[in-house]
Structure formats: C-alpha cells, structure tokens
Specification:
196 residues; mainly alpha; Tetracycline Repressor, domain 2; 77% helix
Length: 196
C-alpha cells in the first residue's frame, strides 16, 4: 500500500508523462505540470529537486511503463512468431499510442542525443535490452524449429524496430496510420518466409 506522499508522487509522474512526451524535456516546464496536476510549487518541490530531477524521473516512469506494457503484450504470445507479431501489432495505430505524443522511446532518444547525456545513456540501455530480448525470441524460434537457421535474428530485430519506430514518426507527421499497416504486413511476411 502506497503512502499518501508516494501516491502524490505517482500522480505527478503519471500526469507529467504525456506533457514531457509531447513537448519534450526542453519544451515541458514546471508550470505545465502544475497546471495539469493542480498542485502547488511547494508540493511539487517536496517530491522533486527541480525540473531536471522531475524530467529524469518522468523519463524513467515512461520507460518503465512502456517496457511493462510491451512485455505484457509479448508474453501473451505462445510461440516465437506470436511474440514477434504481438510486438509488431503493439505499434499498429501510431496516431493513438497508449501514451499521448507517440513512442516515448523514440521521442526521448531523439531529444536526449545531444542535450541530456544521462538520459541518453538510460535510453541506450533500454534499446539494447529490447534488441537483446527480440533477438532471444527469434533464436528461441530457430531452436524450437519454428524458423529456419537462415534467419539472422540480430539483423531482423534491428530492421523491424528501426522500421516501426521510423514509421511511427512518419505516420504522425502525415496524420495517417495506413502506411504502418503495410509495413507491419511486410515485416510479418518476411518473417513468415523463414517459417518451417
């Protein structure tokens, strides 16, 4: 059971997440968070040392939430192929992502590249871990006889994630989900080509 202070901090993080995801770390400010939470500055600063501390904790909250949702989605698949398809389908509607503003991994990665080294390091770890998980699922599929050993798990995993993340941005910019459906079908067909 969370204490009142812990519940308040969780509320701040959950409320601030879409603000930071949409406006970015540089664009979001304390006043945005105060307006959304309807809390006082004193209350906010009772939980965070300042904007930098708030940003770091919001980023961590977004990455953890995204990771949990992704793992839950993937875990529903009973086979390696089903897990990969579940991952791909997680991105099927890039205009209505679970966190307003698009994929937090991509958003944070782009902004942190030159401006926030601590956050860049954190996001790099998340991306590496995600790639390792994806590769391990594909390797499991090869070991289980689902896929031919002609499949290169590292290449396919990188291609799939890079394509999907790029498509999220492009679909948002063009205000259409249609290209994503074609991309997901293409990635699924490619993987099907390795099925035994």
């Amino acid at each position: 059971m969370l204490t009142k202070a812990e519940r308040t901090k969780q509320f701040i993080l959950e409320t601030a997440a879409p603000i930071f995801n949409q406006k970015g770390i540089s664009g979001a400010n304390i006043d945005d968070v105060l307006a959304a939470t309807k809390l006082t500055k004193g209350c906010l600063y009772g939980h965070f040392e300042g904007k930098e501390d708030l940003a770091l904790q919001v980023v961590e909250h977004m990455l953890n939430a995204n990771g949990e949702k992704m793992l839950l989605t993937i875990s529903k698949g009973k086979t390696a192929k089903a897990k990969v398809f579940a991952f791909l389908d997680f991105y099927k509607d890039p205009l209505n992502t679970y966190l307003k503003g698009g994929c937090p991994i991509f958003n944070i990665a782009v902004e942190s590249d030159d401006n926030f080294p601590a956050i860049k390091e954190k996001i790099a770890g998340v991306i590496r871990h995600g790639q390792e998980l994806f590769v391990s699922i594909l390797n499991q599929g090869i070991e289980n006889g689902e896929f031919s050993n002609k499949l290169d798990p590292a290449v396919y995993a990188f291609k799939a994630v890079a394509a999907v993340e790029g498509a999220v941005v492009m679909c948002k910019a063009m205000n259409t989900s249609k290209p994503m459906a074609s991309l997901l079908n293409s990635l699924k067909s490619e993987l099907e080509g390795y099925a035994l």
